[in-house]
Amino acid sequence: MEKAELISYARSILNGEIMIQGVGYSPDRFEEAKRLVNKYEGDPNLLLQALRNLSFVREEMGFDHRFHLLVATIMLSLGFYSGNTYSEESIEEYNLWVGRAEELAPNDFQVQMAKVRGLQLSGQLIEAMALIKSLPVQEEQEKKNKKTGILIDLIINIARSTGAKVEVQELYRFTEEIQPWEGISTSDLFSLYSRKGTIYLSFDPIRSSYNYLKALKIRSDSPWTWHNLSISLKLSKFHSIALKASNRALSIVRFGAAETINRELRQEVSENELFKDKDLDPLIDVFYKLGYGETTGGKGAVKKKKKKWEEIGYGLAGTVLWYFTLRFFGAPDWIVYGIMVIVGIGLIITIFE
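User: That's the sequence. What structure does it adopt?
Assistant: Structure tokens below.
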């Protein structure tokens, strides 16, 4: 049955025009419909049974926004293809029922979240972002977490969209607000860092790498995360490390996307070019940016340390040069040794600063 036909069939069931088998008596038809929707894993018959149950309570619950939201969810699910793709008919039906729910409870949190979802499905990403950002601050942790999850999805959609024009600075601002929330599970934390890695990939690959590394510290057996890390490092021109990350992805499971990146990286990096001395400074620099440097002093302290030993080297070379120059021109001993003492004091200060 085509998606449009399935939606039409579902409408007829809800209106009580079609009787379907497998729907027994339940003392609470609405709760039974919710149970069937929560049980749904791809079998449309469960959703149709849920609609049949709702058809029995349509008159008594017609003024309850929860009824309309549940119908909206069912209609959308019936139009699911893959990924985040739905049929146009199911999206239109979803927005229709959410609109009815909003008429009954315009300030309800679940209604507003459903409205955000509708805008997102319709491709109105900036409008969806504006709506979710305008909602009042929620005190309940469950509601905070739901807003955060939807906000992450929206930013990913915007970052990937070619049609939505949004300033890079705005994406930075939104993503910086997304931090691990209270009571977050390990799997959700892994998902959070993975998604943030995806968000930053298009405009800040260094920060993207950082988030993928944080995700891999939670789940190091994720081939796609290793693959995405290899892409972010490749974009940052750190081909040697990117190749190692790509190799790690392929060691877990071989898949086409990783093999393609791996071939490209091997063209960029030959075995005798891995980790040449000239590459050490940029490699150290990237890991400071990724948060894997000393905890005190930071990247600036390392540069200062490096600069200090350069100064000592130059100082020693200069001392020798001054000594032979003064001797060549026959300078008195007190001048020669006086200058040597001054230079020596300077070197001692430089060493212990």
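Residues 292-307 have pLDDT under 50 and may be disordered.
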